[in-house]
């Protein structure tokens, strides 16, 4: 009898190669997501001479986010917030309908782990070869294989960390800087950290990240219910399980056994190292590889496929009674998924609407209230306003400032002759303006006089206005 | 250590701890989790060696890196100054009146001057530069000593009526309480009030007394004289108040507002910057 330990060592997992419909789907998703990740920063998008030509760019230094033809300024951060909420609702929707599809197919941890296992299998061989190598003592061959594998992992990890930094600055420029050792420290530090995490998480932590580090598995059960399609083992069909020779009794007669021949294929291919036949488990990321593995075996033993398959718990009694399961759409179309979809679409429609109605010029007005008014030597009363003028276009623009009011008020610009100020492309400028009422004008002695300030792009005739008030000299 | 025992209900090993018949199950943590705890402890110890941490009898250990928050601030200020060294030198050398609003040097000067103003000028002139009785409003178009940027810079650098700077702007109005009797002062005040108010009744005796006693500095029409800092008495702006009582007090006792020579406290660049800032507040000439 050994004593108990409060800490468990990681049990290495050696997933066996598997082929089938879900494996093919996962290869495709891996190829597409990795391609998007590595290629996106290199796509160019012409925005004119004043703006960067990178299609997707998070420009921290200049506080701009560029996505194709869309440019987001810091004060439009609600777009990012909206997209994050949409991403969250989308995750809720998919989880409610199809379980942990995000975990199983699209999560970076899954995709990169899959890629690392691919490299591992390519260098060291399939499950049995890897098991033998793992158990073997250190030798030249083992060192060579480990060295090659780790080197390839490291190359992928560096490329992963390297691609990340390209999203934050002009990619070709940064690549040249990195090549000659002239890049900013932040770039090297980001690459180093992401290289280390990719290498460790993809190569050595793998399922530990999902089981112990990720909060998502614990939250997901709140989004799932009995109608959610998950990967499940049809135990009423499979049990009692038994290997081939177990199926004959001592007299040579066949015992009544389930379809499961206990070949362990589903366990051997599982990247999480679990046995799906134990039922739903927190560790299961529903990658569906056990479905492929089991279907392969079922085909070979001449039994119906789908001993392990996507199934909703509500169908279990029907299937046990020999009835066909309800159609998939009946599981997916539920008040819950409809609510998630409606919310998701409403936020998306709102963002698209705002995106198309936003003006290329904007003005915010802050009336100077310290002091509220200034008396001039001729007795005229003046109010000061600080205008923030935003030119969101790619060209320098002449902005004309005017005001409308019931009273005769005049407008002057600080440091500028006339009423027109040129705002450089893609910038915000603070412009101080003076509004004056002559000594005899009613506004000079009225408590407050409403007025509206207008800004007009002289070239395009785009206009914006803001209502504010004029404070008179109150005795 | 206890012997292994598996709980029949859950199939999970127990720790062997039993309270009133309730056994504690053992769902072990991953071992690497324990390593991260040890790594954090090692990190923490290293941190306390490298950075200020351990309290001693006087103060705390300074750490191998010699880091201090004060030092970090000083380094940031030094780096900021070094970054702006060229702009600072340009600002001192520049012809301030030739700088236009769009000029980067002008923008820098105004931004820097805004900070200088808040730290050195706002105590008297107010954070909004609107002044107070006795402290001129810098937002209007009335200037005692001139409102172009060079004149403002001169006033800032040397101050007004102070004993510490020989180049201070200087003028002094006599206290007419020693020269005129109260009745005469009343007439002068009535005349001065009529200069800026069209509906006031002209005071003939006051006009005569004004031309004899006041016009030398304030001019026959009371329009003032910037060379000697004599205020314009015919406009709508009164530094000490334009009502009869205030005017009577001004004429009887005179006024003696002092501004310190800020050139002795500020750098040339700061003086130039604050002059640009004040000039751009709305009244600059």
TrEMBL record, chain A:
<dbReference type="Pfam" id="PF12801">
    <property type="entry name" value="Fer4_5"/>
</dbReference>
<keyword id="KW-0411">Iron-sulfur</keyword>
<keyword id="KW-0004">4Fe-4S</keyword>
<protein>
    <submittedName>
        <fullName>Cytochrome c oxidase accessory protein FixG</fullName>
    </submittedName>
</protein>
<keyword id="KW-0812">Transmembrane</keyword>
<dbReference type="InterPro" id="IPR051684">
    <property type="entry name" value="Electron_Trans/Redox"/>
</dbReference>
<feature type="transmembrane region" description="Helical">
    <location>
        <begin position="338"/>
        <end position="356"/>
    </location>
</feature>
<dbReference type="InterPro" id="IPR013783">
    <property type="entry name" value="Ig-like_fold"/>
</dbReference>
<dbReference type="Pfam" id="PF13746">
    <property type="entry name" value="Fer4_18"/>
</dbReference>
<dbReference type="InterPro" id="IPR014116">
    <property type="entry name" value="Cyt_c_oxidase_cbb3_FixG"/>
</dbReference>
<keyword id="KW-0813">Transport</keyword>
<dbReference type="GO" id="GO:0046872">
    <property type="term" value="F:metal ion binding"/>
</dbReference>
<keyword id="KW-0472">Membrane</keyword>
<dbReference type="GO" id="GO:0051539">
    <property type="term" value="F:4 iron, 4 sulfur cluster binding"/>
</dbReference>
<dbReference type="InterPro" id="IPR017900">
    <property type="entry name" value="4Fe4S_Fe_S_CS"/>
</dbReference>
<feature type="transmembrane region" description="Helical">
    <location>
        <begin position="150"/>
        <end position="167"/>
    </location>
</feature>
<keyword id="KW-1133">Transmembrane helix</keyword>
<keyword id="KW-0408">Iron</keyword>
<feature type="transmembrane region" description="Helical">
    <location>
        <begin position="187"/>
        <end position="205"/>
    </location>
</feature>
<keyword id="KW-0249">Electron transport</keyword>
<dbReference type="InterPro" id="IPR017896">
    <property type="entry name" value="4Fe4S_Fe-S-bd"/>
</dbReference>
<dbReference type="Pfam" id="PF11614">
    <property type="entry name" value="FixG_C"/>
</dbReference>
From TrEMBL, chain B:
<comment type="function">
    <text>C-type cytochrome. Part of the cbb3-type cytochrome c oxidase complex.</text>
</comment>
<feature type="domain" description="Cytochrome c">
    <location>
        <begin position="201"/>
        <end position="282"/>
    </location>
</feature>
<feature type="binding site" description="axial binding residue">
    <location>
        <position position="218"/>
    </location>
    <ligand>
        <name>heme c 2</name>
    </ligand>
</feature>
<feature type="binding site" description="axial binding residue">
    <location>
        <position position="125"/>
    </location>
    <ligand>
        <name>heme c 1</name>
    </ligand>
</feature>
<dbReference type="InterPro" id="IPR038414">
    <property type="entry name" value="CcoP_N_sf"/>
</dbReference>
<feature type="binding site" description="axial binding residue">
    <location>
        <position position="173"/>
    </location>
    <ligand>
        <name>heme c 2</name>
    </ligand>
</feature>
<dbReference type="GO" id="GO:0005506">
    <property type="term" value="F:iron ion binding"/>
</dbReference>
<keyword id="KW-1003">Cell membrane</keyword>
<dbReference type="GO" id="GO:0020037">
    <property type="term" value="F:heme binding"/>
</dbReference>
<dbReference type="GO" id="GO:1902600">
    <property type="term" value="P:proton transmembrane transport"/>
</dbReference>
<keyword id="KW-0812">Transmembrane</keyword>
<feature type="binding site" description="covalent">
    <location>
        <position position="124"/>
    </location>
    <ligand>
        <name>heme c 1</name>
    </ligand>
</feature>
<feature type="domain" description="Cytochrome c">
    <location>
        <begin position="108"/>
        <end position="196"/>
    </location>
</feature>
<feature type="transmembrane region" description="Helical">
    <location>
        <begin position="32"/>
        <end position="50"/>
    </location>
</feature>
<keyword id="KW-0249">Electron transport</keyword>
<feature type="binding site" description="covalent">
    <location>
        <position position="214"/>
    </location>
    <ligand>
        <name>heme c 2</name>
    </ligand>
</feature>
<keyword id="KW-0479">Metal-binding</keyword>
<comment type="subunit">
    <text>Component of the cbb3-type cytochrome c oxidase.</text>
</comment>
<keyword id="KW-1133">Transmembrane helix</keyword>
<dbReference type="InterPro" id="IPR004678">
    <property type="entry name" value="Cyt_c_oxidase_cbb3_su3"/>
</dbReference>
<dbReference type="Pfam" id="PF14715">
    <property type="entry name" value="FixP_N"/>
</dbReference>
<dbReference type="InterPro" id="IPR009056">
    <property type="entry name" value="Cyt_c-like_dom"/>
</dbReference>
